[in-house]
């Protein structure tokens, strides 16, 4: 009786998010049955506290209590939230070994967990083997694919989902919008926008997702028009639009919109200032950037994090104020991250600040970056300084680690059809005509006395000679 009463009170606390109070009572209980353990595990998992959920489960194991399907459901949610693929596989294996019945809810949770952990093939396999699927099952897989860059498959599944008689929900549609933004598929993005307006409520979440899609597909005017149509704008909506202006290099417009946000009495957060500072950096608005960075700290009491410092150092370094950027970096209480050092190195490279740049480049190498572009930047810097031994050393690191340059590509939509242009690829049907147009443009530029900056081309050539 006492155990039943205790579990009821635990459930009450958990439902209202009072997990600390629930845990205090849980610890005082002389006897705890499976229901009590399940309540705490699922409560923590659903409240966005996955680490605590896993701790409770480990305590449960030590006491010799075996979990059921509901416990496993809480664990899959926890594994998905922290991105622990190894533990996620263990949970999945436990379900199979113990032959715990897996209904559509548990199977959907497994799809979601594996997809969020990047195990897309396994997520797809679980999904395909499900005897019964619902809208949430489809949405979980579409979302996982879109967030892991498998945009084409995600969009194909959206169509297949409707062919199977399921109506897309907001999660699947927002995931499809993300997929469209990743490949610049504006036409399909517009269709999804129309579907949301006709079938669902166009509110803050969907509105912000649509704005982001138009922004990344290059339709800035449409993004702003939609932003103005949102009746109640929260911080996320404002941040999305400020970021949109920044992406397109419209720093003054981003600043103007930021001021409008303040006038509406919406308090900017750390993400707002990160978007604003990034926009000002891309537009070279140095004084404005310094002013709002200082005001962020003094007036809004927001301590700068790595993103803010990276934006400020990029802003200063881009404008040639590399020494000032270095002073700002030295004032940081914590050890600056890789992005901050790379921003400073890029400024050194652009403005030939060799004395500062050499120590910065060596620091970046110490951080063991896994981005080939960073190594290319370091190599170019040393080449500019004519330090060929260092260039050879960087190239050796790149070869030893087996890094390969992912070919660059661009996507253009013409008359509703996607055209992908891969670097050095000559397979496009109109390749010869495109090259003829480019040749004509080259002649026109030369006729206007335009002189291309070939410095880096020469340096790269010298690298090849000295390999």
Architecture overview:
By secondary structure, the chain is mainly alpha-helical. Helix content is about 70%, strand content about 5%. It is built from 26 helices and two strands. Strands 1-2 form a two-stranded antiparallel sheet. Strand 1 (about 410-415) and strand 2 form a beta hairpin. Helix 3 (about 35-45) runs parallel beside helix 5 and helix 5 (about 70-80) runs parallel beside helix 7. The longest helix is centred in the last third of the chain and has 17 residues, at about 430-445.
Features:
about 475 residues; 2 strands; globular; disordered C terminus; TPR-like_helical_dom_sf
Summarize it:
The chain is mostly helical and 467 residues long. The protein contains 26 helices and two strands.
Helical coverage, percent range = over 70%
The tally of helices reads: 26
Instruction: Please report the total strand number as a whole number.
Output: 2
Mean pLDDT: 85
How would you describe the shape?
Answer: globular
Largest sheet: 2 strands, antiparallel
As laid out across the biggest beta sheet, the strand order is 1-2
> Helix-strand pattern, N to C?
HHHHHHHHHHHHHHHHHHHHHHHHEEHH
User: What's the gyration radius in Å?
Assistant: 27 Å
- What is the terminal separation in angstroms? 79 Å
Q: How large is the share of residues in beta strands?
A: under 5%
What are the low-pLDDT stretches, counting only 5+ consecutive residues below 50? Answer: 454-467
Question: Structural class from helices and strands?
Answer: mainly alpha
Keywords: Repeat
Protein name: Pentatricopeptide repeat-containing protein
GO biological process, one term: RNA modification
GO molecular function, one term: mRNA binding
């Amino acid at each position: 009786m006492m155990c039943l009463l205790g579990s009821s009170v635990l459930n009450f606390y958990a439902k209202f998010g009072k997990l600390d109070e629930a845990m205090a009572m849980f610890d005082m209980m002389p006897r705890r049955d499976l229901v009590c353990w399940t309540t705490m595990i699922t409560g923590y998992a659903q409240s966005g506290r996955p680490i605590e959920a896993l701790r409770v489960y480990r305590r449960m194991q030590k006491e010799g209590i075996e979990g059921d399907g509901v416990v496993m459901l809480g664990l899959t949610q926890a594994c998905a939230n922290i991105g622990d693929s190894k533990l996620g596989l263990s949970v999945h294996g436990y379900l199979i070994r113990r032959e715990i019945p897996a209904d559509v809810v548990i199977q959907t949770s497994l799809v979601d967990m594996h997809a969020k952990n990047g195990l897309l093939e396994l997520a797809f396999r679980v999904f395909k083997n499900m005897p019964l699927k619902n809208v949430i099952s489809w949405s979980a897989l579409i979302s996982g694919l879109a967030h892991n860059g498998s945009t084409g498959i995600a969009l194909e599944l959206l169509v297949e989902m409707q062919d199977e008689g399921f109506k897309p929900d907001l999660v699947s549609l927002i995931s499809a919008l993300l997929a469209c933004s990743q490949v610049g598929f504006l036409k399909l993005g517009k269709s999804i926008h129309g579907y949301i307006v006709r079938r669902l409520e166009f509110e803050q979440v969907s509105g912000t997702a649509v704005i982001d899609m138009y922004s990344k597909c290059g339709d800035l005017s449409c993004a702003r028009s939609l932003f103005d149509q949102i009746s109640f704008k929260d911080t996320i909506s404002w941040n999305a639009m400020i970021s949109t202006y920044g992406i397109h290099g419209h720093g003054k417009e981003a600043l103007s919109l930021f001021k409008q946000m303040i006038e509406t009495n919406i308090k900017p957060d750390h993400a707002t200032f990160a978007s604003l500072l990034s926009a000002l950096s891309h537009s070279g608005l140095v004084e404005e950037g310094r002013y709002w960075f200082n005001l962020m700290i003094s007036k809004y009491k927001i301590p700068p994090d790595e993103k803010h410092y990276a934006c400020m150092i990029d802003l200063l370094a881009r404008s040639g104020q590399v020494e000032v950027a270095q002073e700002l970096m030295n004032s940081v209480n914590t050890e600056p991250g890789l992005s901050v050092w790379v921003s400073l190195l890029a400024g050194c490279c652009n403005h030939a600040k060799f004395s500062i740049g050499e120590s910065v480049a060596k620091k970046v190498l110490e951080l063991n970056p896994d981005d080939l572009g960073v190594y290319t930047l370091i190599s170019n810097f040393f080449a500019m300084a004519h330090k060929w031994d260092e260039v050879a050393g960087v190239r050796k690191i790149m070869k030893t680690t087996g890094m390969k340059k992912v070919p660059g590509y661009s996507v253009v939509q013409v008359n509703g059809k996607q055209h992908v242009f891969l670097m050095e690829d000559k397979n496009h049907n109109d390749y010869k005509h495109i090259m003829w147009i480019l040749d004509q443009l080259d002649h026109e530029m030369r006729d206007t006395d335009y002189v291309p900056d070939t410095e880096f081309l020469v340096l790269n050539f010298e690298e090849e000679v000295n390999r």
